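Lab notebook, bench 4. The sequencing result for the construct came back, and we need a structural model before the next group meeting so we can plan mutations. Quick request posted to the team channel:

Model the 3D structure of this chain.
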Amino acid sequence: MANATIIDVAAQAGVSIKTVSRVINNVTTVKPAIRARVVRAIEKLDYHPNPSARGLGGNRSYLLGLLYDLSCEYYATSVLAGVIESCRAANYQVVMQPCDYRSSTVADDVARNVRRSRADGVILTPPLSDQHAIAAVLERQRIPFVRVAPAKHADKHRSVYTNDREICAAMTEQLVALGHQRIGFIIGNPDHAAVAHRHRGYLDGLRVCGLRPEASLVSQGYNSHASGMQCARKLLTLPPAKRPSAIFASNDEMAAGVLAVAHSMGIAVPEQLSVVGFDDVPLAMQVWPALTTIRQPIPDMAAKAAQLLLRNLSGQPPDHSEHVLQSSLTFRHSTGPAPNRVRARSSKAPAA
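Done. Here's the predicted structure in token form:
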């Protein structure tokens, strides 16, 4: 039967709707003969249960809440792709819940929205994953949750993150290997605590290469294209001897802002300026030149977060191992040898 419902199954099997729901939810108190009748009816009608029907047999809704900040919609889209993958395998569905982390009532808003949606548990994305008030209210109400990319990793059984610091150090070392001695850095939004690890990684990379950090080469951004442009103007209008030959931005949106300013100032990328981002969002391939960046495995991190949450909901013991997924360097066309290295090579070229 096309689009069979739980009512059709109950009628076919000669049982109540609640009994069908109990069979679907594998409740052990259902008699074997009745269970067999219901299973035969489900197979005959090609019935596929939905979360609402499954929830009739118990306290579960078979819904997971995905909480994201209004300013991070592109990030939430990548997270959703990974969460759906894990939820589909467990026959769960996802409810997306936008939040405003700047609101003074955000914790209460989250609790109220989760109750209304009847979500069995929630996944917190940055910067919500660092909001202690949100975690506290969820714990008080005994709502299971998992954090994606939190700054602190104390509760390993419900935290999934990446190697921000180590991979940013590696990217900085790559820029130095290209001959860049003056590397600017644009810090991410301080409300997104995990991005502070990226700045620390940049400093680590400089130290490994024997370069001294300079305050004039570091600018505070806010994860937006506009703030990337503002920081780029500050860095690219320094006196020529102080100007960076490469700029490393804490995310791709700010790196795109750097490219825009460089184009407007007639600075050739990568011939005169190398530009690097972080995340590898679709924007990285849409700008010109295509952006060298760090690929953060956001869908994979989200899938792992959903798996940890589903593990909790199924009653399995928590997994206290470290859930860190590795980011990777992705080289495209916005980086190249430092201008002084190119000139040095040209001067050594044999005369024709």
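The CA atoms of residues 203 and 213 lie 7 Å apart.
Will bring this to the meeting.
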